[in-house]
Amino acid sequence: MMKIYKIAQHGDMFCTGYCPEFAIALHRLTGLPIYVFNEIEIDEDEIDDEYGIDENYILVHVAVKLTDGRFVDARGIRSEEEIASNLMASDTTPLTGYKLIPYTENELFDEQSIENEAISLADDFIKNNTKLFGGII
User: Fold this and answer.
1) Nearest to 61 by CA among 17, 93, 13, 31
2) Helices 116-128 and 19-30 meet at what angle, rounded to 10?
3) Which of 18, 61, 68, 95 could form a disulfide with 84, with the two C-beta atoms 3.0–4.6 Å apart?
4) How do 98-103 and 76-78 pair as beta strands?
5) Residues 6 or more apart from 113 whose CB is under 8 A from it?
6) CA distances from 32 to 46, 68, 131 (A)
7) Cβ atoms of residues 70 and 78 within 8 Å
8) pLDDT tens series, the chain, 137 aa
């Protein structure tokens, strides 16, 4: 059975749309690299004989990666499989086809609508919930 993670009051917001801001805050505090979980959307109508099936990527989650290969998001330290199996706040929508891509903070700012206030809230949440993050802070 999937382990359910308790989320503190402000932690909920980082599981439902503000995960880029959370990852940026955690990256700034730790220097850990940012990774994006991109859902692979395949348009089978756009099959090209030379290049194959046209794949589009849709950002569905952002986390930072620990040196041991696990990831950290607002739910704490989790494996790639745990994140992919319960990305949505409801824990009922597994991500079956995805591509994990390293990103920089600047790339997130260029491609997403990043809220500086949410980064500040994430910073506070991280600092107030250090036990959730296994001592990496």
Assistant:
1) 17
2) 60
3) 95
4) unpaired
5) none
6) 37, 11, 17
7) yes
8) 333 334 445 588 888 789 999 999 999 999 999 999 988 776 666 555 565 555 678 888 999 999 999 999 998 999 999 888 876 444 456 777 888 999 999 999 999 999 999 999 999 999 999 998 988 88
